[in-house]
Amino acid sequence: MKVLVPIKRVVDYNVKIRVKPDQTGVDLANVKMSMNPFDEIGVEEAIRLKEKGVATEVIAVSIGPQEAQETIRTALAMGADRGILVKVDHEVEPLTVAKILARIAKAESPQLIILGKQAIDDDSNQTGQMLAQLLGWAQGTFASKVVVEGDTVDVTREVDGGLQTVRLKLPAIVTTDLRLNEPRYASLPNIMKAKKKPIDAKAASDYGVDPAPRLKVLKTTEPPKRKGGVKVKTVQELVDKLKNEAGVI
Amino acid sequence: MAVLLIAEHDNKSLKDSTAKAMTAAQALGGPVDILVAGQDAKPAADAAAKIAGAGKVLLADDAQYGHQLAENMAALIVELAGKYDAVLSPASTNGKNFMPRVAAALDVPQISEIVSVDGPDTFTRPIYAGNAMQQVQAPAGKKIITVRTTAFKAAETTGSASVESVSAAKGPGVSEFVGEELSKSERPELASAKVVISGGRGMQSGENFHLLEKVADRLKAAVGASRAAVDAGFVPNDYQVGQTGKVVAPELYIAVGISGAIQHLAGMKDSKVIVAINKDEEAPIFQVADYGLVADLFKAVPELEEELKKQGY
Ligand SMILES: Cc1cc2nc3c(=O)[nH]c(=O)nc-3n(C[C@H](O)[C@H](O)[C@H](O)COP(=O)(O)OP(=O)(O)OC[C@H]3O[C@@H](n4cnc5c(N)ncnc54)[C@H](O)[C@@H]3O)c2cc1C
User: Fold this and answer.
1) Can you point out the beta strands (E) in A124-208?
2) Taking a C-beta distance cutoff of 8 angstroms, is the pair A186, A78 a contact?
3) Among A residues 147-206, those touching chain B with beta carbons less than 8 Å apart
4) Residues of chain B with C-beta less than 8 angstroms from the C-beta of A39
5) Would you state the pLDDT for residue B260?
6) Confidence of residue A227 (pLDDT cuts 50, 70, 90)
């Protein structure tokens, strides 16, 4: 079976972003970009399924600017077989991404699509679920364990109260949580090999999807800043302050 | 603007995130009905009926909603959504699971984790782990919204709405519940506790979390953790506080052996008072702490418990 892994190019998780003073957005000039960490976990899971002989082909798809090709190369270097880049130069909303992915899924007929549970830039946590709905498929979100068995997949999910396991009919959608696996680093030979793997270049119009955003961003601002506090010398002083100054205990 | 609010519950009882999301729903400025979808969920529906501001409570009681499977929940909500201009849900792992399906079915964008309602179609939400706030305006059409409930006060429970049964929708039949492993604890829930004490990698083992539990018992606190502590297997996944875990905003948050990575701060920086106990005085957690104690936690935490005990907590 084929596995599709959608991946997003985002600001690296180590970067402390800056809001533009004119409130028009976040300053992305000269900022380090990487594959969304949850998507890396998705790529790793797909490759492991291939190594176990469950998956036959792993296709990495990114919807984004030309530079997202580097992100696809990273997935190819990790072990994905080929890539599809759907070039869009502005931000794309989750529903738009889901619509494009739905068209790709119809063309490629994967049995499993593994996405990250959220992108660490817009923190939306929507795309996988939307894609599942558009395709009429089942979904196993926030996955910490994925077991494919015949024509079903068991997904153990990280939920508010603990863990929940669901059984889904294939084809299905999985979205990854942090503890599903630890993604590998690509080795140098694999990085070289990845350069020869094919990447299809596409546009949103190839899929009949209008990529224009529908939510209007009015402004982007700094969150309220916390004032730095004081250091206390002893536990006794701490308890006294919490009781008599802050009044929280 | 008629609003449908999806209740968060475990069939037996209602989570207080429902009453908090109610405050957001009412800010949209219209009558609000509450949907309780569950199995043997009459007690939860009765509790929902007490939330002030509820027009009526719709109870969809059916085995297929017992575990809130996203496919079935979405089918039900989409069927009911016709009569409403907006559908809201707490941004719990349930709401996050089914609401985007509803949005996709209705072909509208979803607005995730709003922290304020600025107008009938205008909302503010955090992006980049809360390092920026984005104000967005929704297009015409139904509004599908999840609510970061820590940003809203709970509505009163002085109401007496009627409970009406609604029939189950036909689910797509593509998923089934297999099992669950829920953390059991006598302590308050992380999301609603007034005091939270969290441990990080500095705790060194799951065993050592007992030190925090002793303090938690004195302060009626919930116990949380950083990702590093969860990844290391010290505590279960549902303890994780942060950008990709739970968001908490208690009166008092005590961070023990936690460095203060942005992903962790994202989940707790709206707490009223923050205490940090860390042996590294350069740790970034001190930049957001109201009270910082530079100390070895293995000495400071037992001392803290002792002092609280002495003072009658
Ligand atoms: C995609 C993504 C999502 C993430 N989501 C989250 C999230 O939701 N929540 C989260 O917490 N993290 C998250 N992280 C991880 C985050 O980046 C940090 O790695 C993590 O928060 C670090 O945990 P920590 O502070 O416990 O560990 P460390 O950074 O290792 O800090 C340990 C601290 O303990 C102190 N210490 C050690 N021993 C003692 C002692 N004896 N006494 C006192 N102090 C001591 C040290 O000085 C140090 O400051 C995420 C990361 C990624 C990439």
Assistant:
1) 138-149, 152-159, 162-169, 172-176, 199-203
2) yes
3) 154, 157-169, 172, 177-179
4) none
5) 98
6) confident
Nearest to A217 among B134, B191, B295 (CB): B134
Contact call for residues A116 and A176 (beta carbons, < 8 A): yes
Protein residue whose Cα sits closest to atom 48 of ligand 1: B259
Which residue among B205, B239, B263, B281 is best mutated to probe the pocket of ligand 1, counting the most ligand atoms within 8 A of its Cβ?
Answer: B263
Per-residue b or e along A157-188, where b marks 16 or more CB atoms closer than 10 Å to that residue's CB:
bbbbbbbbbbbbebbbbbbbbbbbbebeebee
Does the pLDDT value for residue A54 go beyond 90? yes
Instruction: Nearest chain B residue to A99 by CA: give it.
Output: B104
* Residue B166 DSSP one-character state: -
pLDDT of residue B23: 98
- Cα-Cα-Cα-Cα dihedral sign, residues A220, B266, B103, B35: negative
CA distance A227 to A144: 37
Positions in chain B short of pLDDT 50: none
Task: Using alpha carbons, list the distances in angstroms from residue A5 to A55, A57, A58, B38, B239.
Answer: 12, 11, 7, 33, 29
As a whole number of Å, the CA-based R_g of chain A is 21
Q: Distance from B209 to chain A by nearest Cα, in Å?
A: 18
Q: If you average pLDDT over every residue of chain A, what do you get?
A: 97
- What is the pLDDT at residue B185? 87
Q: Is the CB of B202 under 6 A from ligand 1?
A: yes
This prediction has a pTM of 0.97
Q: Kindly state the percentage of chain A with pLDDT values over 90.
A: 98
Evaluate if residue A226 carries a pLDDT over 90: no
Q: How far is A48 from chain B (nearest CA, A)?
A: 20
CA atoms of A93 and A83, how far apart (whole Å) = 21
Instruction: Return the structure tokens found at B263.
Output: 């992903």
